[in-house]
Amino acid sequence: MPNRRIFLKSAATTALAAATTRLHPLLAESKKRSPNDMIQLALIGAGIQGQGDTNFALQVPGVKLVAVADCYDGRLAHAKELWGSDLFTTRDYNEILKRSDVDAVLIATPDHWHRQAAVDSIKAGKDVYLEKPMIHIYPDGPEIINAVKNSKQILQVGSQRVSSVVYAKAKELLAAGAIGKLNMVTARWDRNSSIGAWNYSVPLDASTETCDWPRFEGSAPKMAWNPERFFQWRKWADYGSGVAGDLFVHLFSGTHFITGAHGPTRAMATGGIRYWNDGRDAKDVLLALFDYPEGFNLSLHVNFVDGGEESEGFLFTGSEGLMEISGRTVTVTRTPIASEPGYTVSTFAEAQQKAYLEKYREKYPVKHPEGTPPRDVEAYTAPPGYVDSYDHFHNFFNSVRSRKPVVEDATFGFRAAGAALLSNLSVEKDSIVHWNPETMTIV
């Protein structure tokens, strides 16, 4: 067997070289592209995520924003400030779907609008970039998947780590046996700020005049106008899916992409509102454990009352080492497998201890007189300035042009979101819940 350390170093060099060339892969292409090849994009849902996503999307050459829909007039006005006064804006996204100059839509609405907006867009002949989580409730998944299957449209789910060169490197290392047999994955995403806990600012002009409250409510239970629910919707299950749908889904996407797994078979979770007692019903602390048929366990936690800085990361534990993802870096720490079983003789009579150790050393001679051999540590970091969100949009627009499969289709998106929402279901039922990752159904 070739020296694994040499192999991993060689693989790292290849991956980082590829990463560098992927930073702006369309720059050369844009010089020879005709004006008629421009992808005309529309944004549906121009909140924090929607505006941020659009800024990344427009960095990809050959993409132009032509329309924006949102239920708050202030965001429509700001869209024109950001992207031009000639931008078409509306409260009703159906007006956008009727336009022949729109090729693709970016959907970044509250979760409870994901299914309807995606299905409507597909039926209107638009390609779709759908922010995570793909679903708000379980029936959403099959409906979105079937809509795509019965059309010629492209749909990509927006968990950008699936396009990350860092995660691609981790996938390669795991497959190469860098840490031996995987037996556990531990992932976290902690926050310690008010904004991190979804306490987004409510504009001073928020009212039923500037905000289309009935349209925002959509399929949610009807209630009186509430500006906090409108602008801080992630805090309520009527519109969002809590930390499971907002953050766990990213951790599932990363886990499934790196391991190739389709999902867990059972889940158990606990949590509560430990600090943000402000009327929300979404937990601010959530912990969950998942069993995977591939033979490993996944442990997740989110803590919105973290005493430190915001923290996100993965730890893959194998039979021969550890692999950690933190920011733009993946680190492999290999611990040599013990060449001897060890001994516990201190409770024996001294004569028996001496006799036992003599026999033991005959069978297991000392290989490292200085003690335990040093651990083998290697780290691989993406190039400076690398952003996986850009790559994810680049991959989406490549599929829009080529009609080739996307990197994160509806089935992948449902398996990630469906697994994540098992956490909420387990807490709600106060029991273990079972899931079939192949049929994507609750057992």
Write the topology of this structure.
Elements: H1 4-22, H2 27-31, E1 39-44, H3 48-57, E2 63-69, H4 73-83, E3 88-90, H5 93-97, E4 104-107, H6 114-123, E5 127-131, H7 140-149, E6 155-158, H8 165-175, E7 182-190, H9 213-217, H10 227-231, H11 242-259, E8 266-272, E9 285-291, E10 297-303, E11 311-318, E12 321-326, E13 329-334, H12 350-363, E14 376-381, H13 388-402, H14 410-429, E15 433-436, E16 441-442
Parallel strand pairs: 1-2, 1-4, 2-3, 4-5, 5-6, 7-10
Antiparallel strand pairs: 7-11, 8-9, 8-15, 9-10, 11-12, 12-13, 13-14, 15-16
Describe this structure in words.
The protein is of the alpha/beta class. The chain has two domains: 4-162, NAD(P)-binding Rossmann-like Domain (Rossmann fold), CATH 3.40.50.720; 165-337 and 372-384 and 411-442, Dihydrodipicolinate Reductase, domain 2, CATH 3.30.360.10. The protein is 36% helix and 21% strand. The chain contains 14 helices and 16 strands. It has a ten-stranded mixed sheet, with helices on one face. Strands 3-2-1-4-5-6 form a six-stranded parallel sheet, with helices on both faces. Helix 6 packs parallel to helix 7 (140-149) and helix 8 packs across helix 11. The two termini are 43 Å apart. The model is unreliable at 1-36 (pLDDT under 50).
Main attributes of the structure:
single chain; 443 residues; alpha/beta; Rossmann fold; Dihydrodipicolinate Reductase, domain 2; 2 domains; ten-stranded mixed β-sheet; six-stranded parallel β-sheet; 14 helices; disordered N terminus
